[in-house]
Amino acid sequence: MGSPIGRHCGFAMLCQHMRMRPNLASSHYRPLWIILTWLVLSPTFSPIARASDAAVIPLPPDVAKDLEILGKGVVGKALPAPPFTDIHGYGNLGSGTWDYKIVHGGKDGMKVRSEHYEKMPKKDGADIWKRTVGTEFVEYIRIDSNHDFGKYLEDDLDVGYSSRFKPGVTWLGKTKAGVTRTIDSKIEAFKTDKPDHVSYRGNLKAKLIYVGQYEVTTPAGTWPALLMRSEFNIKIGPAKVTDTAYMFFAKGVGKIAEVETTNVSAMLVYHSSTKVAKLLTKYPKR
């Protein structure tokens, strides 16, 4: 989720490239955020019908093409895709650090990305987790009464700004293969040390889909993994951001592979596109 979302706002990247004073929090990595992560039905997915329980769904050709940058032999055969109900079992929700090898893209030649998770005190009766991605940003993740897993706050450590999402941005939630979920969220961006003074307001629209289950091989092992796809469209301040992510989740492990594409534009003066792919190399045993 790698950006994915800060990862989704993209404004930090915009400011860095234009050497402007940053006015809102973001990071083009997701957790983007961009990740999490993540899971969208686009028009290219129109051939996918709602699947019955544990249906085997072949990987659509356009999705297979997008996943090629993970490497040969990473994504294997299609497997029965059961209803998704176990948030704790599939999310990176054990305290510890997950290490990923960047196999495509990466900031400033970066080859390894670490994501550290830490359980925090409950808030309004919900479980809260803190996700720290490298030295770039921190996300606060909530599991609500509906068992949805998503972020509601992000701190961008590079620029000293934060983003608040109302409602939170869901990466994982109870669903079935082929079912699409839509999200409409408001964004508030502010200096991290001044949370009561909003600098910018914006909107986030997303579509999420559980594509199916596939055999996935990474340097850390081979697992049956649920494939989630997300697509986010963000407008905040002068920036417009689109972010598409594919995330594989294995039970008892968490996120094991991810491909994320982010496009950022600001009026007619700036355009940028990045694609990052990564594979799990190490994770804390539960």
Describe the protein.
The protein has about 290 residues and is mainly beta. The chain has one domain (about 10-280). The protein has helices spanning about 10-20, 60-65, 85-90, and strands at about 55, 75-80, 95-105, 110-125, 125-135, 135-145, 150-155, 160-170, 180-190, 200-220, 220-235, 240-250, 255-265, 270-280. It has a 12-stranded antiparallel β-barrel. The radius of gyration is 17 Å and the shape is globular. Residues about 1-10 and about 10-50 have low confidence and may be disordered.
The major beta sheet can be summarized as: 12 strands, antiparallel, barrel
What is the beta-strand fraction? over 45%
Judged by helices, strands and strand pairing, the structural class is: mainly beta
N-to-C SSE series? HEHEHEEEEEEEEEEEE
Shape: globular
| Oligomerization state | single chain
Instruction: Report the total helices.
Output: 3
What's the number of domains? 1
Number of strands: 14
Output mean pLDDT.
79
Radius of gyration: 17 Å
Strand order of the largest sheet: 3-4-5-6-7-8-9-10-11-12-13-14
Which spans of ≥5 residues are poorly predicted at pLDDT below 50? Answer: 1-8, 10-52
CA-to-CA gap between the ends?
A: 21 Å
Share in helix: under 10%
In short:
The chain is mostly beta strands and 286 residues long. Helices cover 6% and strands 53% of the residues.
